[in-house]
């Protein structure tokens, strides 16, 4: 498979290149193209994961339908795209979404059902995570008594910053923040229940929301291995690092290096590329019930 490092659409206005997605402006709509770039610790690796963008897009499409929450998706097949995009079908098919423009809320909405990652580090220091005081004696990977909402202030440059709920309220308004918290936890609960039925634990995930025609809607990707931690239920054991269906192998590899977590990220060895792609494919098949992962 030919990996896509970035999309190239002459004649179309490029709005932004994110860590993984290229965003093209079509007037009242946007075209989101999921490339095969991968990021960790908010830094983009110079090494591509071939086919990753297709897997991410197809997983988001599955979740948009399953969750039943208002979202920004208009079309995902090139045949349904405006004619101006048809010449770029080889770049776009399977890895792009035509979406409505939204006024983004600058709060990343994170739901945690398990104590891991930055949440575990915060807990070790303070006994709490984003203002949630947690029971004593929890381990790395412990299941929380109930899922918690741990928002982050979005930064277009650098790392997103974990904040408490009061700060989230100051960013987007207290009523909106309350709605986002309720929606985030409801979506997490529904997704986690589905995942557990197929033997996968959803440790945590992040959602982004925006306002479309006065309605709060899901935007960007949803419940992919790039935005979530998926663990095999059969191998779950708190107190140690968990095997995963996401990009944890990339994070773990970078953690093993003498790298300060600032861009540029070091290259990835081929075995990490293959392991990551294998995990993405397995997650896709198990979560969607499809026998074959898209290629």
Describe this structure in words.
The chain is of the alpha+beta class. The mean pLDDT is 94. The chain is globular and about 60 Å long. It has helices at residues 52-67, 89-92, 118-126, 165-172, 174-197, 248-255, 270-288; strands at 13-17, 21-25, 29-34, 39-40, 43-44, 73-75, 96-100, 103-104, 107-114, 128-129, 132-133, 143-149, 152-153, 161-162, 200-212, 215-219, 228-232. The chain has two domains: 13-101, Phosphorylase Kinase, domain 1 (2-Layer Sandwich); 104-247, ATP-grasp fold, B domain (D-amino Acid Aminotransferase, Chain A, domain 1), CATH 3.30.470. Strand 2 and strand 3 form a beta hairpin. The N and C termini lie close together (8 Å). Helices cover 30% and strands 26% of the residues. The strands form four sheets. Strands 8, 9, 12, 13, 14, 15, 16 and 17 form an eight-stranded antiparallel beta sheet that branches. A five-stranded antiparallel beta sheet has the order 1-2-3-7-6. Strands 4-5 form a two-stranded antiparallel ribbon. Helix 1 (52-67) runs parallel beside helix 7 (270-288) and helix 6 packs antiparallel against helix 7.
State the gist of this model:
With 295 residues, this protein is an alpha+beta fold. It contains seven helices and 17 strands.
